[in-house]
Amino acid sequence: MTVSQNTLCVQEHQCLQAYNTLAVPVNTRWFADVYTDEHIAQALAFVTEKRCPLLVLGGGSNVVLVDDFVGLTIHLNTRGISIEKETDTEVFLSVAAGENWHDTVMYCVDQGWYGIENLALIPGSVGAAPIQNIGAYGVELTQCFAYLEAIDIHTGRVQRFDRDACEFDYRDSVFKREAKDQYIITRVVLVLSKQAQWHIDYPVLQAYLETVNPEELSSAVIAQAVIDIRRSKLPHPNDIPNAGSFFKNPIVSAEVYNDIQQRYPNVVGYVHSRQPLSYKLAAGWLLDNAGWKGTELDGFAMHKEQALVLTNPQRLSGVALLAFVGHVKADIRQKYALELEVEPRIYTR
Ligand code: FAD
Ligand code: NAP
Predict the structure, then answer these.
(1) Least crowded by CB within 10 Å, which of 27, 152, 232, 312?
(2) CA 244 to ligand 1 centroid distance, Å
(3) Mind giving me the DSSP string for 1-61?
(4) How far does the centroid of ligand 2 lie from the alpha carbon of residue 335, in Å?
(5) Does residue 284's CB lie within 6 angstroms of at least one atom of ligand 2?
(6) pLDDT one-digit tens code per residue, 219-252
């Protein structure tokens, strides 16, 4: 039987272990790889007909899948990169949501463009990048973001969100709040600079680049530095399943910060870049200081090079994972009177 490339191919009872970087073995009632906007329209018709929920997955690197999913899971594979507009100084690059984020960064770097290089080697898809306003090494997506297009899941209408409409915040956007589960992001337009300009004051990056001749600095050199630094401390999900930083850095008042600093003079914290009266505590330091770095319990561990990364080497269930998370959170609560929040989206029934 030949299946038209224009027809969405829906499979039943698919295991999602290969589709989430924590390698949690859950099943989905229906599953489809999506390659075109037409497939997305068909997926929306499918969930309407079945009256079932929809789960959108890109790289599955920021999700904790706990229970079997009773609806349709779509895996976004849409492709396409093109220049939408170009001036003497800037390039507006339109990228399909299913494109790989890191490949897109390296494409820009290869063109000699600037603005995105600090975000090299972040796993996942382009379409998921605005969801949590991905950030690393002193740069956030919002700094190279022009606008996105998304399909309203209920009406099928295409809607444009500019930077303001996305309400970007620290690892946050409207798509984690009011617009949660309302849209499928189909295209992101990035704005890159053709002029050499960089952000290298993030301490570990600055230290790495100290030996580089300033005249040789370029987006390619910075991207390679970020790649080297990341490889030295972050486990690759294919080797050790993980979802990157598992907990958010707690944002606390100056009062709470001072109190913790009195008890723990070495605590790592920074003035919050968007709320100058608040402090961002390094959750990795809190965990490390509490003895969790490299500690294994019930088959899970906080990574030996970076305590903020929860690993699932035995590819255990999401239920078991949440039990482990409960132990970690209780210990941090007891030691610092702080409530850790999980960064990846948790999917329970
Ligand atoms: P998924 O996990 O597939 O999806 C995440 C959420 O977004 C889900 O709720 C999903 O339904 C939704 N979603 C995905 N695509 C769409 C779409 N097109 N439309 C609507 N909703 C959608 N994050 C950082 O910010 N900075 C880092 O430096 C960083 N480093 C990481 C390192 C490692 C080793 C790992 C494993 C993760 C890291 N992350 C980091 C987290 C993660 O890679 C990012 O959040 C990434 O953007 C997730 O992309 P994804 O395609 O895998 O999203
Ligand atoms: P790190 O360099 O060990 O730093 C620890 C924490 O201190 C980070 O959370 C970082 O905040 C903060 N920090 C360091 N220098 C800072 C400065 N000058 N100003 C403000 N805050 C500062 O962190 P890491 O774990 O190796 O990660 C390196 C970078 O990659 C970080 O930006 C991190 O966010 C990102 N990353 C994210 C994930 C994820 O899944 N979300 C996974 C891996 C790496 P910020 O986190 O706000 O930068």
Answers:
(1) 232
(2) 9
(3) ----TTS--EEEEEE-GGGSTT----EEEEEEEE-SHHHHHHHHHHHHHHT--EEEESS--
(4) 22
(5) yes
(6) 999 999 999 999 999 999 999 999 999 999 999 9
